[in-house]
Amino acid sequence: MHRTNNIPPLGDHRALVRATMPAPVGELTLIASARGLRAVLWHGELPADTDIAVAAGSGRAASILAEAVCQLEEYFAGTRTEFDLPLDPVGTEFQQAAWTELRKIPFGETISYGEQARRLGDANKSRAVGAANGRNPISIIVPCHRVIGANGSLTGFAAGVDIKHWLLQHEQRGAGQGQLTLV
Predict the structure, then answer these.
(1) To bridge 61 with a disulfide, which of 17, 26, 76, 167 should be the other Cys (CB 3.0-4.6 Å)?
(2) 183 or 50: which carries more pLDDT confidence?
(3) Class of domain 4-77
(4) pLDDT in tens, 82-135
(5) Are 8 and 44 a contacting pair, CB within 8 Å?
(6) Exposed, middle or buried, 44 (CB in 10 Å: 0-12/13-18/19+)?
(7) Which own/partner pairs from 41-49 qualify as long-range (CB within 8 Å, at least 24 positions apart)?
(8) Active site residue: 144, 147, 167, 180, which one?
(9) Is 88 helix (H, G, I), strand (E, B) or coil?
(10) Which CATH number fits domain 93-174: 3.30.750.24, 1.10.10.10, 3.90.940.20, 3.40.50.720?
(11) How far apart (Å, rounded) are the C-alpha atoms in residues 161 and 175?
């Protein structure tokens, strides 16, 4: 399941550049502004007719994309557990808070939507947290895949539950935790 018709807001396309990279989970499209990484999208999420320039040259946005590709390659190779990139996602104040909380979940660990809501100050907002996570434009780097159902089930993910499962297993192996047990 992709967000093709529901991609996260990207802002003024004229200020953005993009690059693609192969990954074990399929081709990724990375988008950056001069301020930071704006999005990591799954194959097919960005409509083909989107008017975002392909990164070229040595501008700040192109440098951010190059570093993001490098760090993602290290992540997939199992040599990186934390990302160190300037981020520039577009979202509401609540979405931004939810995405900031996602970045606090350690590599190889998971929490429930209810726990994320509790950490944001209101345990009753797990549905709102789920919606905010669903609009997370920076997949993998802002790890919404680390949030699971209260009963341990893998629920909603832009690239599909199979990819979420793959990412969690990849991280748990890297953290020395063995295989993920599905509910």
Answers:
(1) 17
(2) 50
(3) alpha beta
(4) 999 999 999 999 999 999 999 999 999 999 999 999 999 998 999 999 999 999
(5) no
(6) middle
(7) 41/7, 41/137, 41/139, 42/2, 42/3, 42/139, 42/158, 42/159, 42/163, 43/2, 44/2, 44/4, 45/2, 45/3, 45/4, 45/7, 45/158, 46/7, 46/18, 47/4, 47/7
(8) 144
(9) coil
(10) 1.10.10.10
(11) 21
- Residue 162: what residue type? D
The rounded mean pLDDT for the chain is: 87
- E strand or H helix at 69, and its extent? helix 60-77
Domain ranges in the chain are 4-77, 93-174
Query: Please, which pLDDT band fits residue 183 given cuts at 50, 70 and 90?
Result: very low
Q: What is the pLDDT of residue 179?
A: 55
70 among known catalytic residues: no
Q: Please report, rounded to a whole number, the percentage of residues in the chain having pLDDT higher than 70.
A: 86
